[in-house]
Amino acid sequence: MSSSTTSPTLLSRVRNPADKVAWREFDARYGEMIVRYGRRCGLQHADAEDIRQIVMVRLSKALLAFNYSPLRGKFRSFVGRIVRNEVIRLLSRPNIASRRVDSDGGESREPVNEEKLDRQWEREWADHHLRRAVARLRRTYEPRSIDVFEQLLAGQTVERVAADFKMTTQAVHKVKQRIRNRLKELIAGQIREEDQPNG
To answer: What confidence tier does 3 reach under pLDDT thresholds 50, 70, 90?
Structure first.
């Protein structure tokens, strides 16, 4: 089973602690996102990696009893609560709080804001799905088209991209629309599979 697609069976497989392959897939899929979230919250890389390991241990126990129910919320909320609680616990330690960094790389003395942590989790989850979808597209689309799209995502103007790639602006618009539509389909599918893990 490829880790590039969100399999409805992965959540059921990780409920079996003996299924090491499933846990490697799960960690490959979500571990980097957890580290990125920790960094977004101001943690140094080593502390964010600690969060990743702690969360994976907690999830290995919590997922044993996890059953999807729309009334209980989405999978991202389930994981998000565990991650956020560990981040808050870590940030509450005096030795960690003094090592927090802000977005410019300097020290941060800002108090922990739980609403902000929740917003950052939602942004990181969205970014995670975008990264996964782009990675999937890279395997099926012409590399040049992906490069064009990524330049646009990075904020380059259509005119600038057209000049850089020696294309017409109309051709750039077509690439943008085609890839954007496919990304929306892929992301919707990924989220649907996470929110309906039982099929």
So the answer is: very low
